[in-house]
Design a protein that fits this description.
Elements lengths: L1 E4 L7 H11 L6 E4 L10 H9 L4 E2 L3 H6 L10 H11 L4 H9 L3 E4 L2 E4 L15 H10 L4 E4 L6 E6 L1 E5 L3 E3 L5 E5 L13 E7 L4 E7 L3 H10 L4 H9 L2
Parallel strand pairs: 1-2, 2-3, 5-6, 6-10
Antiparallel strand pairs: 1-11, 4-5, 7-8, 7-10, 9-12, 11-12
Helix pairs in contact: 7-8
Bound molecules: zinc ion (ZN).
Length: 240
């Protein structure tokens, strides 16, 4: 099976469309998403309907649950909060129900999905260090796990010790378990502004992180036109 891992879209329709055009060249069987379909960007409903039409397996991001009223806004900084409240006013009730229905974790064969961590997905902590990864790998009961949340593409693998890699082509055949962040479609934060997503081939046990340029000018213009915080438009240019 070949999976496309499309995460942290964050209401960025331009980035999502560019990624899906690239996905079309990748012979994909199934779509996976580790959440944060909405929040920050100006096209929440368009991104939701486009993603849902792909019949993906999706887990809840903190922005998804906050928009749906399942997570307190106290967990967010001021501009994230503003975007969440703005998003709420632009979704129809069926979309809100769908966001509320998303689970914290999901399993697809030998793959686990979680937005934040495996060891405490409800806390929405960032999985950034080898120690964070160790805690999640301890409880992970599948060979591979995809996470999102940090918007930084990175792989943590366990083979006795936990190591991490920023490689964009990752061979998992030799490692016992691995946690992979395939990056963010709609708001990359690793200094590269191009949209990021993953292709996982479960037969070859191989992940490729793909970067796709998209129309940042249009996405950031829409954020400003919507009256959302200026920083949310500016950061897209810097991939931060
Ligand atoms: Zn996110």
């Amino acid at each position: 099976m070949r999976y496309a891992v499309i995460s942290d879209i964050h209401s960025n329709s331009e980035a999502l469309e560019a990624v899906l055009a690239d996905v079309a060249t990748q012979d994909i069987d199934k779509y996976l998403s580790t959440g944060d379909v909405v929040g920050y960007g100006a096209d929440p409903e368009a991104c939701l309907s486009r993603l849902r039409a792909l019949d993906p397996v999706v887990v809840a991001g903190n922005h998804d649950w906050a928009v749906a009223g399942r997570l307190s806004l106290d967990f967010f900084n001021a501009y994230a909060r503003e975007a969440i409240e703005w998003t709420r006013g632009r979704l129809d009730s069926e979309s809100v129900r769908w966001l509320a229905s998303l689970p914290l974790t999901a399993k697809v064969g030998e793959i686990t999905l979680a937005h934040a961590t495996v060891h405490g997905p409800e806390n929405f902590d960032y999985l950034l260090t080898a120690y964070d990864a160790h805690l999640s790998l301890e409880v992970l009961d599948t060979a591979v796990c995809f996470v999102g949340h940090s918007h930084v593409p990175v792989t943590f693998s366990q083979n006795g010790t936990v190591t991490f890699s920023f490689a964009t082509e990752i061979d998992l055949a030799g490692c016992a378990k691995a946690i992979v962040n395939a990056g963010s479609v709609g708001q990359p934060r690793d200094g590269n502004p191009h949209a990021s997503y993953g292709v996982y081939d479960s037969d070859e046990r191989r992940v490729v992180v793909r970067r796709v340029p998209y129309d940042i000018a249009s996405a950031s213009r829409k954020i400003l036109a919507a009256g959302l915080p200026q920083i949310l438009a500016e950061r897209l240019w810097h991939g931060k």
